[in-house]
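Please check the following.

. . .
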Amino acid sequence: MERSVIVTGGSRGIGRAIAIGAATAGYQVCVNYARNAEAAGEVISLIQSAGGKAIAVQADMTKEADILRLFETVDTELAPLGALVNNAGIVDKGSKVENMSLERLERMFATNITGPFLCAREAVKRMSTAHGGKGGVIVNISSVAAKLGSPGEYVDYAASKGAIDVMTLGLAKEVAAEGIRVNAVRPGIIYTEIHASGGAPDRVERFKSMVPMLRGGQPEEIADAVLWLLSDKSSYVTGSLIDVTGGR
């Protein structure tokens, strides 16, 4: 049976690698993006040129109306929803908590916590056997920051990812008997553009010496873990937090 997957923040970095990998694995793919339509279009072109089916849908993860439109578009244009990857997230410039503004905190938590919650809610409504669905998989992209706390830089980001870890554990138990598996992948420092958006484009190079493997990770290495969780090979795995951190 053909199934579709929504990858939030799927136009760049880890999300891009996940979207391309999911298409290769046989999913019809919805690439969600916030602003960069060109980057999303490139991902769609790559998937289509390889024989896959994909669409790009703009939706701001801080706006419930956008999220509802995202899921409704998939309902009408792709195969029944079988998976959700909550990948979209933001960081901000490094800062101590004492200097963080309310606006920064509200934006961080709206994007990194509320958005994934709303997406998970809509996915459960469609995939749960209690609602007539055929089951499915939710994979949340967390961060090693949830373990480390990111003092002096991103305590707000780390806290948002800690919330995602707890959501993963609770939701997994809530819907396990309804045919839905829920897991999280916690990347370490990965070569993506998110560091530049936080004002630290060289962050991986600066911190890779702290990683036991002495290198940063690649988006495809995170995607491989996500794709395993999306597959039947992980059919007895739910409520797990999988670290892909180079040993950190």
